[in-house]
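To the wet lab folks,

You asked to see what we're planning to order before we commit. Fair enough. Below is the target structure as tokens, and below that is the sequence we designed to fit it. If anything looks off to you, flag it before the synthesis order goes out.
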């Protein structure tokens, strides 16, 4: 059967976020019925054309169980990425967990850079300029909205 393994042994609360343009962090929690010796392994595929790869840098808990993964040099494609977490235990079969994620939806944007403020006392105005934040995905000319909060001291 497709979901072989003990009910409640698959991971739960799987979530990923992309930050600092090129880094992605995924975390999960052990299934409530997973035996204590269960070890989890994360595989992902950025698109259908690319090979499935295992996590290279696991984040472990105090029992040396893999509870997360840090990915470096991530770039966002146009397809959904595929994530699979399976587990192994000497006591029982562990159910796997899988999810497709639009990577652009989980990117946490950086703040704008090179912010400059030039004020002119005579004209009584200020010009504020900045550079658009770097983003991980290829669609570079997305519509950005900015909010400027000016506090007078």
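Sequence we intend to order:
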């Amino acid at each position: 059967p497709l979901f072989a393994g003990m009910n409640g042994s698959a991971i739960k609360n799987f979530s990923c976020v992309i930050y600092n343009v090129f880094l992605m962090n995924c975390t999960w929690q052990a299934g409530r019925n997973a035996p204590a010796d269960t070890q989890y392994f994360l595989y992902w595929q950025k698109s259908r054309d690319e090979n499935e790869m295992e996590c290279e840098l696991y984040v472990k808990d105090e029992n040396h169980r893999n509870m997360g993964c840090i990915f470096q040099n991530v770039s966002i494609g146009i397809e959904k990425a595929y994530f699979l977490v399976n587990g192994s235990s000497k006591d029982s079969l562990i159910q796997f967990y899988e999810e497709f994620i639009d990577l652009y939806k989980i990117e946490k944007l950086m703040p704008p850079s090179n912010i400059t403020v030039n004020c002119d006392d005579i004209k009584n105005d200020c010009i504020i300029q900045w550079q658009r934040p770097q983003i991980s995905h290829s669609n570079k000319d997305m519509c950005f909205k900015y909010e400027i909060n000016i506090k007078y001291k």
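Structural context that might help your review: Residues 46 and 81 are 4 Å apart (CA to CA). The first strand starts at residue 12 and ends at 19.

Thanks,
Computational group
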